[in-house]
Design brief:
The protein is an alpha/beta fold. It folds into 2 domains: 194 residues, 3-Layer(aba) Sandwich (Rossmann fold); 116 residues, Rossmann fold (3-Layer(aba) Sandwich), CATH 3.40.50. 25% of the residues lie in helices and 26% in strands. It has 8 helices and 17 strands. It has a 7-stranded parallel β-sheet, sandwiched between helices. A 5-stranded parallel β-sheet has the order 14-13-15-16-17. Helix 3 crosses helix 4 and helix 5 runs parallel beside helix 8. The longest helix is centred in the N-terminal third of the chain and has 17 residues. The chain is globular.
Length: 343
């Protein structure tokens, strides 16, 4: 266990694959910058890999003051144990007060292993991070400038705020898309610190024999317009209405978990707490009741249009425009109007 270090940096694990940083890393750099400015400390990014030095400038432009670069050919492809050794070694040496990871499959694998080794707490799937003073309700002791790790709990029915005042560094994984991507500043100056971490061959328990990458079929995060269908669409066949409307307005197709679980559409289209978080210019929700788990993934859309037969559906609480009606009647009318509009 590492004792609290009030002057420690705010770190981001710079997850990369094939020389490209994951989008969530750039989002976290902006959030880390905000947290660090509140605390009056620097932002550090830990960048392990092979031939990845060229990524350091992008991290600095996004808000990092220091990039801790660990170059090793054995780090070319992610393996949990050697990557954890890198993180643990640097944490013990530099003693950051906060370490953030993306809640990606890789981050969800790495973060708890590092937290266990450091005997530190770790909160998974955070949707917000803040700095605040906290009073222990039992001892009444005031702890200044703690990280508030905020995430949905109990199936999204409550929002929990978790703090860690005695076992540091404070660690959290953050879902992609929940933090806004701040614009980079190419004129920022930063420091690249090259580190060597001993990686014993015994840590390399796996050997990569063959690698297969499944291409992404849909990119909901980049979509300016999304038409999403829910369980209320009724069937896989009726989901063609969602596709047709999306095609007419040049949008991507999304879905609620209910639609995915019912087999109407693939999981890569799922939006919400257990899917993708999106912020399009226009979000059309058809046949989606709007449970808190779904709203968590789309409620920051610039404009939301909801179509539902139930006037009391929760989706209307976040919608800018609501249409109470049967989507099987409403959507064909929308498609007809859009096709007949003057070009």
């Amino acid at each position: 266990m590492i004792a609290p270090n009030r002057q420690g940096e705010v770190w981001v694990f710079a997850e990369q694959e094939d020389g490209s940083l994951h989008d969530v890393v750039l989002e976290l750099c902006g959030k880390a910058r905000q947290l660090a400015d509140t605390l009056g400390v620097n932002v550090g990014a830990v960048l392990p890999g092979h031939q990845v030095r060229g990524l350091a400038g992008k991290l600095i432009a996004q808000g990092a003051d220091r990039v801790y670069l660990v170059e090793d050919s054995r780090l070319a492809h992610f393996q949990t144990i050697p990557y954890a050794r890198v993180l643990c070694t640097l944490i013990e040496k530099y003693r950051p007060q906060i370490v953030l990871y993306g809640a990606t499959p890789l981050g969800r694998d790495l973060a708890p292993r590092v937290a266990s080794a450091m005997q530190a707490g770790m909160t998974a799937d955070c949707t917000d991070l803040q700095i605040s003073d906290v009073t222990d309700p039992k001892t009444k002791e005031l702890h200044k400038n703690l990280l508030l790790q905020i995430r949905p709990a109990f199936g999204g029915n409550i929002i929990a705020t978790i703090v860690n005042y005695d076992r540091w560094p404070q660690m959290a994984t953050v879902r992609e898309g929940v933090m806004p991507l701040l614009p980079p500043n190419p004129s920022r100056n930063g420091e690249i610190i090259e580190e060597k971490v001993e990686i014993d061959e015994s840590l390399l328990a796996l050997r990569l024999v063959e690698r297969h990458i499944e291409p992404r079929k849909v990119n909901l995060k980049a979509a300016r317009v999304i038409v999403a269908g829910g369980g209320g669409v009724g069937s896989k066949e009726d989901f063609r209405l969602i596709y047709e409307l999306a095609g007419v307005i040049g949008g991507a197709v999304g879905a609620s978990r209910a639609a995915v679980d019912s087999g109407f559409i693939g999981k890569e289209h799922q939006i919400g707490q257990t899917g993708t978080t999106v912020r399009p210019a226009l979000y059309i929700a058809a046949g989606i009741s709007g449970a808190v788990q779904h709203r968590a993934g789309m409620e920051e859309s610039a404009k939301i249009i909801a179509i539902n037969t139930d006037p009391n559906a929760p989706i209307f609480s976040v919608a800018h425009y609501g249409i109470v009606g049967d989507l099987k009647k409403v959507i064909p009318m929308m498609i007809k109007a859009l096709r007949e509009r003057p070009r």
